[in-house]
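Lab notebook, bench 4. The sequencing result for the construct came back, and we need a structural model before the next group meeting so we can plan mutations. Quick request posted to the team channel:

Model the 3D structure of this chain.
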Amino acid sequence: MAMEAEILAGSRLNSRQSLGYQRDEPIFCKESEGRGMSGKETASGGTSVSSGWDRPLRLYVGAVILASVGILCASFPSLHEFRRADLWIWLIICIGAEFLWLETISGEGSDSMASTVNFAAIYLLDLPTVLFVVPVSVFIATRFVQKRNFIKSLFGFSQMIVTIIAAGSVFRWTGGLFTELEVLRHPMSLLPCLAAGTVYTVVNSGLVACAVSLENKSPLFKTWRVNFGYRNYIFSSVALFILSPLLVIAYLAVGYWGVLLFFLPMFIIKNQNREYIELQRTTHALISSERMAARGEMAAEISHELGNYLAILSGRAQLLSGRAMRAGDAAMAKDAQTIKDQVANMTVLTKGLLDHSHRDVKPQDTDLNELTSRTVEFLKPQNRFDKIELRVELGEGIGDWFVDAGQIQQVLINLIKNSADAILGEGRAEGVIHIYSEVDANGGAHLIVEDDGPGIPENKRDAVFEPGVTTKPDGHGFGLYTCLRILENHGGKIWVDASPLGGAQFHLSLPGSRKAA
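Done. Here's the predicted structure in token form:
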């Protein structure tokens, strides 16, 4: 199958490809973002090209499509060729091969058997037939099975036409065409296969690498090396190439029954792979759960000790407040009250310190706007916020919400601190963090924390909420996971997008649960 790339800065390419390593992400940017080359779905169900395309990328994709059109006009099978049964049988075989993939433990990638069938088709069929069955199977798989938009599917179709014409031409120029088993007995018969396989790999990966390079504005060779020149890709490419002569032998020996027998073990391997992956994920989840339980026990001890010191501070603040009142010092009384309030906030935090389970939600009537304001006031005196502007915009109609105030405040503190760390981590002394609230279309509360920091790469936005995953050099990887659990236990959601300010934009969504009845 044609390689498709998701262009993500600083990350190894997410691709679904016909040769070697593949990933299940779409070409270029994700559709949900509507940026880059992803295109946008129109109201009528069609696809319009996003205005975010860079001109060189537009020209490149257009050139690939035009080249494929020219190749088809010169080599496409004549109408009477479509009456051949073998043409349609091979089309079905190629489409079926698109479903033969082995998922990785991370779920980010898979190895596909499609390229093995593509090689076999080049070796066995005339070139016009291959130019029909392979690209059409790619288009059907990307458009209707993987649900890619039309632009992505068309690029995959065009890319595969260019790849097939290059590899197929080299195979024939070097004297290759397998029509009987006797031909394969000669060692020299492998030379056309090696030549075609090399051209197939270089052209297929090169077309994608060029698109990635244009999108990321990075050197072409570096892009290819990072995304395709790594060990897993090379090994799986070689393995799939070696399998193709076996498929040819099976077909020449017993016809289409040989193809079926060739694929039956692959289905068994696919099922075994799925069971293995599920077992590994279950094991990893259990290990993660045990680690979090151990952290919870340690956090409980820390929380207990901090609580003792905070109780002393609270008592001293009360004494100071009483003395100030007796002395008639209103300013000191106000300062003492501020200390008491902040100690109370710290007490709430210590109770949930690094408690990653957060199963016990104790909701109460809470003014979310007031909670947000108090959280920001609590954080402002910290040194990290000295030159960072904290903008707060509180929407009307939020009012009281039935939530666990301490836990929601912990989420806000975590997100605001993360934003500050991201800004300072760039070596900047100044920055902007914007916090605002609103009522969403479903009547729920919507809190947003965004910044002008470096942001989070698109391929890491879902992963940052997993335990142990962090974007900070000294992070423990449980802060955002804790936020996720808190929101989930409130029946809400948390997610991250790119901010118009240039950094990350975290969204907190709480269901429409007003004051308790």
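DSSP finds 13 helices and 14 strands in the chain.
Will bring this to the meeting.
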